[in-house]
Design goal:
The chain is α+β, with helices and mostly antiparallel strands and 118 residues long. It has helices spanning 6-16, 82-89, 96-108, 113-117; strands spanning 31-37, 45-52, 59-67, 70-78.
């Protein structure tokens, strides 16, 4: 089976994907692959890509699933740059105990960040 050329897919997708903020078409040069799965197959392959709009400078992370001739895409506006997105992709998941601890902190926090940080 032929190796899947993700850069070609990115170039093709940049023609059809538009910025959700200003509707500008994306430039493939502004798009970087954060993660790819099953690079040897055209079916059940996926990409996680980061792109920045040249017009409004909004950053978006797209999850793209390739299943033969079908392409599915979901985008999320973010304030992360591509380096941050890669770093968070590799980070440990938040544990249930961390969520509980943070919930307990918020239940007694009075909102005074300045006092808390000093």
């Amino acid at each position: 089976m032929a190796k899947l050329n993700y850069q070609k897919w990115i170039e093709l997708l940049s023609v059809i994907l538009h910025c959700p903020v200003c509707s500008n078409k994306y430039n493939a040069e502004q798009t970087s692959i954060i993660e790819s799965k099953d690079p040897e197959k055209y079916e059940n392959s996926s990409l996680l890509v980061h792109t920045e709009c040249e017009r409004c400078k909004s950053s978006v992370v797209f999850s793209i699933a390739l299943d033969g001739p079908e392409v599915f895409s979901v985008g999320m506006v973010t304030d992360l740059n591509s380096t941050d997105a890669k770093r968070f992709r590799d980070a440990d998941s938040i544990s249930l105990n961390e969520v509980i601890d943070f919930h307990e902190f918020l239940s007694v926090f009075d909102g005074d960040f300045e006092r808390m940080l000093h």
